[in-house]
Amino acid sequence: MYKVLIVEDEEMIRKGIHYTYDWIGANCVVVGEAKNGKEGLEKIKELEPDIVLVDINMPVMNGITMLEKSIDKYIYSAIIISGYDEFDYAKSAIKLGVSEYLLKPVDKKQLFEALDIAKDEVELKKRYELVKDKLEDIEDVDVVRGDFINSDFKGSKHVRNMIKYVEENYSEKICIKDMVELTGMSDTYLNQKFKEETSYTFNEFVNRYRIQKSINIMKTGKGKIYTIAYDVGFSNYRYFISVFKKYTKATPSEFLEYFKNK
User: Fold this and answer.
1) CA 102, 103, 107 angle in degrees (round to 5)?
2) Which domains, from first to last, does the chain contain?
3) pTM recorded for the entire structure
4) Contact (Cβ atoms closer than 8 angstroms) between residue 101 and residue 90
5) What is the pLDDT of residues 108-157, one digit of tens each?
6) Other Cβ atoms within 10 Å of 234 Cβ, number
7) Of 177, 146, 145, 163, which is closest to residue 206 (Cα–Cα)?
8) If DSSP codes are grouped into helix, strand and coil, which group holds residue 243?
9) CA 256 to CA 92: how far, in whole Å?
10) Which of 138, 197, 208, 240 has its CA 20 to 30 A from that of 216?
11) Are 247 and 261 contacting, i.e. CB atoms less than 8 angstroms apart?
12) DSSP string, 5-37
């Protein structure tokens, strides 16, 4: 169930909202009340509600100030409840991302419709936070680890040539047979040597390098997943997604959405 906090200075209205609506039927439960914005802030921190019903004009701290101090710090959706004469003041709440604005007295049908919107909104916020937490260090994701992809690598000539070939041809089809033709050495020897010097098999290195390149493209906030997959050498879109998740623990769409919102 979704946890609801009611922040309203008029006790009759506050209690009326709390006890005269079928919260269970709306898949909600009222977890607390507050009679001003200051108490509301304390309750938000303590109870971690999913939805906050908040009046605008209250003593000690008004509803707008309470929202300004909390809506970006805690994950919840806000529904404004106020009188007709406060409508212009309530417009500023829209900029804070409130999900709905209801006039007193609160109509049951309108409240439940507002709750549905607020529930959808808080679910989106929660999903976004999960993605953001999972990708907290997204800009520093390093799928290809090691100094063998820069000038400091002191490996053998054959392995250096193999790495250089991948760097220059990653967008094309690459296989170990290409390396056999490039170096004149057997695929068994090349695979063994490459693994020994880089810790990766050749195929794994190719995939990791392509995924790193795809992340670099995503950082620009441009492109679609399927075009990015093709641009870095994956002809199979689903395979690209599978490999991407394997090395980053997230989906390409989560990465792309993150960078678009930066």
Assistant:
1) 75
2) 2-134 (3.40.50.2300), 138-260 (1.10.10.60)
3) 0.58
4) yes
5) 888 899 999 999 999 988 877 776 666 666 666 678 776 666 667 778 88
6) 22
7) 163
8) helix
9) 31
10) 197
11) no
12) EEE-S-HHHHHHHHHSS-TGGGTEEEEEEESSH
> At residue 225, what are phi and psi to the nearest 5 degrees?
-60, -45
Q: Give the span between the Cα atoms of 165 and 180, in whole angstroms.
A: 12
The answer to whether residues 80 and 56 touch, using CB atoms and an 8 Å cutoff, is yes
- Cα–Cα distance, 121 to 98 (Å, whole number): 10
* pLDDT tens digits for range 205-243: 999 999 999 998 988 877 889 999 999 999 998 999 999
Residue 247 tokens read as: 């090395």
CB 38 within 8 A of CB 64: no
Q: What is the largest CA-CA distance in the chain?
A: 87
Name which of 59, 57, 108, 55 is nearest 78 in CA terms.
Answer: 55
Lowest-confidence segment of 1-5, 81-85, 184-188 by average pLDDT:
81-85
Partners of 54 in the β-ladder: 7, 80
Scan for tokens 């995503």, then name that residue: 218
Say which residue the tokens 């919107």 belong to.
117
Asked if residue 256 has pLDDT above 90, the reply is no
For the residues of 45-109, what is the DSSP string, one character each? HHH--SEEEEESS-SSS-HHHHHHHHTTTS--EEEEEE-GGGHHHHHHHHHTT-SEEEESSPPHH
